[in-house]
Structure formats: C-alpha cells, structure tokens
Design brief:
The protein has about 300 residues and is α+β, with helices and mostly antiparallel strands. It is about 25% helix and about 40% strand. It folds into two domains: about 1-60; about 60-305, Beta-galactosidase, Chain A, domain 5, CATH 2.70.98.
Length: about 300
C-alpha cells in the first residue's frame, strides 16, 4: 500500500468525522435554542391566558365561577369561608300557588358565556304552551356586591298570572352562614320591620312568604304580610350579613331545615304573549345590623332607577 495515499485517505476520514461532529453540535444547539424560545413563548401564553381568566372571574375581593349549567359559586375573598352557591334559575314557577305544582326544571338548558365582570346566561323553558325565554347576567358590581340582571320574554301563547317567577336560590357553601332554626334569617314584613323568622310564626322545613297578596285567606303562610323581596342572614359570629333583594319580587322562601338556603324570587308577571320584562337584583355582604343592610340594598336599587 502506498503510505502517502493511505495517509491522505486517513486524513479525509478524520476530516469527515470532524465535520459530522460539528454538524451534530450545531444542530443540537439550534434545536436547544428553538425549544427554549418556544417554551418561553408558551409560558408567556399560559401566563396571559391565566391572567385573562382571572380578570374574567376575579375582581378584587370577589370571585364568581360556574359549577354546573345553572349553578355558580360566589366567594368573598375577605374570608375563605364566606362562599355561596347561586342556583339561577333553579326552576320556573308558572303559577305561584302554595303547592308549587306547576313548575318546570331548567337543568342543562342554558348557554353560559364569560364577560369581563361575570357571566351571561341564555336559556328557555317550555311547558304546556307556557314558554319562557330568559337572559340574565351575574355581574361583579363591587368587592362585596353581586348584581343580577334578568330579562324574560313570554314566548308562548298564554298570558302569565301575577305569580309567575323564576326561582333563585342562594345557599351557604360552609356553615358560616347556616341557620337551622331560623333565628339568624330575617325578612321584611309589614309595617316596615325587619324580623327574624322566629318572630313571624312557626318555622318549618321550608317557609314561603308571598310578597304579592293571595286570595286564600286560610293559608297559614299569610299570617304576616311580606312587603319586599329582602331576605338576609347573619353569620355565626353576627358580624356580617348576606342580603338578597330584587326590585320586584313574587315571593321570599327560606329553608332553614333542609338545604339551608334563602330565596328571593323575581316577579315576572303579568306578562302577555310576546311581552318582555326586566328585573334587577343584588346580593350584598355587609357589616352591621339588618336595618343598615336593608338600606344599603335599597339604595343600590334606587341608584339603578
């Protein structure tokens, strides 16, 4: 073998392997830089998405988040135990009689979308030619206030009575605002008094208080006249109150012995076919006594007029 030729071939092979190693090193560096850039971009994108998500459902000291098609959680951040479930609407009541026989569940019939201040929900209910189309907004109004805006259309062929309503339930998520005997839950009765349930008569598993007078004088639930949709409940330490109020209310319901919830139901009748009506409500966490809480909610409604 020619030594010179052999040395040349060996030199070429060494150069080839050296070049190959350089190519691998360069490729590895390029891939590493690319992955690093992509990773940083993805992290920034994730951070932005999380930030946008927080901006939608969080405003300072209040959070609203959906848990089911028509169930939302309201959390006041000043205390991790101050959390509530808002069932809105829980069901539709086309004829507000004492038996509540003519009702319609609305589970899973809504379309929920996020807004900058809360959530918007559109839905419809149909039963025996009585049809509801509703739009409502759950709005973070301030650090301690949730505003409810409701639009209802009679999309059926039959008119509704004065007692047609969409039932709205507010239940405590923890025991902070529980009330099993009715001594911490208050309603607004005639003559302009805020009274606990224990001072209005017998406290049952579920108490109904129609705001609009009914004709059935024998109904024991008419033992008092409720004059507004205001319903409020003290916390266990009696330092805070959660209050619920609509501009026009069909009925107040209180459930101290069961789900432990409070209801203020917006009145949506009488309503002729094709007619649309709007209602405004507030859920407010306040400090102080019941009269002060009532005045705060009343002022909120007056400011909306």
């Amino acid at each position: 073998m020619n030594k010179l030729t052999g040395n040349i071939h060996l030199c070429n092979i060494e150069r080839f392997f050296l070049l190959l190693v350089k190519v691998f090193i360069i490729a590895f560096i390029v891939i590493g830089i690319t992955q690093c850039v992509n990773s940083t971009g993805n992290e920034k994108k994730t951070e932005n998405e999380e930030k946008n998500h927080e901006e939608v459902i969080n405003q300072a000291f209040l959070t609203i988040s959906p848990e089911a098609p028509y169930i939302f959680r309201i959390e006041f951040h000043q205390d991790s135990l101050v959390q509530f479930q808002l069932w809105f609407p829980e069901l539709a009541i086309f004829d507000c009689d004492s038996s509540r026989a003519f009702t319609k569940e609305v589970t899973g019939q809504e379309w929920v979308t996020k807004t900058q201040t809360g959530f918007s929900v559109v839905g419809k209910i149909d039963k025996n030619n009585m049809k509801i189309k509703f739009k409502y907004k759950i709005i973070i109004f301030s650090d301690e206030t949730v505003k409810l805006e409701l639009e209802v259309k009679n999309a059926g062929k039959l008119p509704w009575s004065n007692y047609a309503q969409l039932a709205v339930c507010l239940s405590p998520f923890s025991k902070t605002f529980s009330d099993t005997i009715g001594n911490k839950t208050l309603i607004h009765v005639s003559p302009n008094l805020i009274k606990p349930l224990t001072e209005t008569g017998e406290v049952k598993k579920f108490n109904h208080y129609p705001v609009m007078p009914r004709n059935d004088a024998a109904d024991p639930e008419q033992r008092i006249q409720v004059v507004s949709g205001f319903v409020s409940r003290f916390s266990h330490d009696r330092k805070s109150m959660i209050s619920f109020f609509w501009d026009e209310t069909a009925r107040v319901d209180v459930n101290p012995g069961g789900v432990d919830c409070i209801h203020s139901h917006p009145a949506i009748g009488p309503l002729n076919p094709g007619e649309i009506i709007n209602r405004t409500g507030f859920i407010v966490l306040t400090q102080g006594n019941a009269q002060e809480s009532y005045k705060i909610v009343q002022n909120l409604l007056e400011d909306e007029e």
